[in-house]
Design brief:
Layout (H helix, E strand, L loop, with lengths): L1 H26 L15 E7 L4 H5 L1 H9 L2 E7 L5 H4 L7 E3 L3 H5 L10 E13 H9 L3 E3 L5 E3 L1 H9 L31 H14 L8 H16 L8 H10 L6 E4 H9 L7 E6 L4 E8 L4 H10 L1 H9 L3 E2 L5 H8 L22 H11 L7
Parallel strand pairs: 1-2, 1-3, 6-8
Antiparallel strand pairs: 3-9, 4-7, 4-8, 4-9, 4-10, 5-6
Helix pairs in contact: 8-9, 8-15, 9-15, 12-13, 13-14
Length: 373
């Protein structure tokens, strides 16, 4: 009897203990709520950009500046003229080609106004010995401030005569200049920089008139085809063409964005004898945000107006629309501003590019067989 009573007491104690434990757990104060991650509540955006903007968009400082504005931005690179097709049916929020002409070829399902947060002139880069040879043959001049100008009318005259570099008799011919006279570009079917080169050359070949119809296309096509065919295999992106030049494996005379040269100059990566030549009849690359979803406007406005991002745009070689002087000022702080034009208003003629459909026809007429898409 005593053992049975003892067992009953122990069992009752166990039940009471369990009940007390359950009650204590039920009334225990809850712990702190989980804290949101750094990107919680931010606007997530994905888009396509040209390769010349990849260093900027993927830089830690730029990504941090985006997060400070409540944006989480991821990008993929694509040729400016490939973006329209590549964006179809994909969940991209924005695309940023390297020209307003390519931007107009991209359809968007929303009503929006294209934004140009920054821009860059197209330039010719060469080594010092090559630049001096160009100067000796009327293709280039340099002023007292070390700013080089490339003379497009003389270049047009030389290529119309289908001259080779060895036909030029002024000065000593650099060993890397061989074959016909031409400026190396990328593939205009994919790359905006090359299509803008054709825009300038078509303007010159059309009697300093913007090509606006089939007659103009037919008139200029033979020369433009000649300029592209002489180059052989064409690279798909300006980034490849430029990096080959920096590595010493590229073409002696290359058409590229000023921003790519300025960015690497600020990093101290340019060959010491690099010369930047500004065409006296040139064209500017307008990096244009095309919004594909309403939330992309937050990115466009941040790139256009945010002081931190504007400073970073300049540090990566672009000329911010809000303050174009910042790029050369950034170069000056690094002691690398020599040879860069402080103010683009002193450039020569800047004819507008043809309309999108005309430029696409110019590219098709100029492209070597088998090139492009």
């Amino acid at each position: 009897m005593r053992q049975r009573l003892l067992g009953l007491v122990l069992a009752l104690g166990l039940v009471v203990g369990v009940v007390v434990l359950v009650v204590q757990q039920h009334h225990r104060s809850p712990g702190p709520a989980p804290q949101p991650t750094a990107t919680a509540g931010s606007i997530a955006l994905s888009g396509l950009i040209g390769s010349e903007k990849n260093d900027f968009f993927t830089a830690d400082q730029v990504q941090q500046a985006f997060r400070a504005k409540g944006l989480t931005v991821s990008v993929r690179t694509s040729g400016s003229w490939q973006m329209a097709e590549e964006a179809k049916g994909k969940p991209y929020d924005f695309v940023i080609p390297a020209s307003s002409v390519a931007a107009r070829a991209i359809t968007t399902p929303i009503t929006t106004t294209a934004v140009r947060p920054f821009y860059s002139p197209l330039v010719v880069i060469a080594h010092q010995q090559t630049a001096q040879f160009l100067q000796s043959n009327g293709l280039a001049t340099v002023d007292g401030n070390g700013i080089w100008t490339f003379h497009m009318a003389q270049y047009l005259a030389d290529v119309q005569r289908q001259l080779g570099w060895s036909d030029l008799k002024g000065g000593s011919l650099p060993p890397d200049l061989a074959g016909k006279i031409y400026i190396a570009t990328t593939d205009p079917n994919s790359s905006s920089s090359a299509s803008l080169y054709l825009a300038v050359m078509s303007y010159l070949a059309n009697g300093s008139q913007v090509v606006s119809d089939q007659t103009g296309i037919d008139r200029t096509a033979p020369l433009l085809h000649y300029l592209m065919a002489n180059q052989g295999a064409l690279l798909a992106s300006s980034d490849q063409l430029f990096r080959d030049f920096v590595a010493g494996t590229g073409k002696p005379l290359s058409w590229t964005y000023e921003s790519e040269v300025a960015e690497q100059a600020m990093k101290g990566n340019m060959p010491g004898d690099t010369v930047v030549l500004y065409p006296d009849i040139g064209i500017t690359s307008d990096h244009t945000v095309v919004e594909l979803t309403p939330k992309a406007d937050a990115l466009a406005q941040a790139l256009l107006n945010d002081p931190t991002l504007i400073n970073l745009e300049a540090q990566y070689g672009f000329r911010p629309t809000a303050d174009p002087q910042k790029m050369v000022a950034a170069l000056k702080t690094k002691g690398q501003d020599h040879g860069f034009l402080p103010n683009l208003t002193s450039l020569g003629s800047q004819p507008p590019p043809p309309t999108t459909d005309i430029l696409q026809k110019i590219v098709a007429a100029a492209s070597p067989v088998g090139s492009g898409n």
